[in-house]
Design a protein that fits this description.
Largest sheet: 7 strands, mixed
Organism: Tothia fuscella
Radius of gyration: 16 Å
Protein name: SnoaL-like domain-containing protein
CATH class: Alpha Beta
Strand content: 25-35%
CATH architecture: Roll
């Protein structure tokens, strides 16, 4: 039987896959904090929901979707009130942002992640701790900068 924690995580992943950040807003508590790791990947510092939403809104003009596949889900139980997933995700860039200086395969990015979701007492997400493959992040940032440049947008150092 799936817990409400696992159900919330599945809703979060489904909304993220479709870049539906308004849906994600309904799943998080006022205490929500999103943290990226590792620090060595030069990812943004921990963010509140408004800051994270602004950061993630940079994806919409460039990506059709970012489908995520959960490979493993571990519900840590009531005492921990956490869910841990191992997942992969593949960026689906919009045709308008892809140039032909890269092959179609060159625009493929598959990321690998371990994510810890911390639930609050009210059943909403208090925090997300995303540990990403740093080499994959580097490639994704390169592709985002290229796509943003093709669209005429400055993607900054964080993609």
């Amino acid at each position: 039987m799936s817990s409400s924690r696992a159900a919330t995580v599945h809703k979060f992943i489904e909304a993220f896959s479709k870049l539906e950040f308004d849906t994600i807003s309904s799943l998080v508590s006022p205490k929500f904090k999103y943290t990226f790791a590792p620090v060595s990947a030069f990812l943004p510092p921990p963010m509140t929901l408004p800051t994270w939403s602004t950061h993630m809104s940079k994806l919409r003009p460039l990506l059709e979707a970012y489908p995520i596949t959960i490979r493993t889900l571990i519900d840590c139980g009531d005492s921990e009130n956490k869910v841990v997933i191992h997942a992969t995700g593949q960026a689906q860039f919009k045709d308008a942002v892809m140039d032909d200086r890269l092959s179609e395969e060159g625009w493929v990015h598959v990321g690998e992640y371990v994510v810890v979701f911390t639930m609050g007492e009210e059943g909403l997400l208090d925090g997300v701790f995303e540990f990403a493959d740093s080499k994959g992040v580097e490639r994704f940032v390169e592709l985002m900068k290229r796509a943003g440049g093709n669209l005429g947008e400055d993607m900054g150092s964080q993609g």
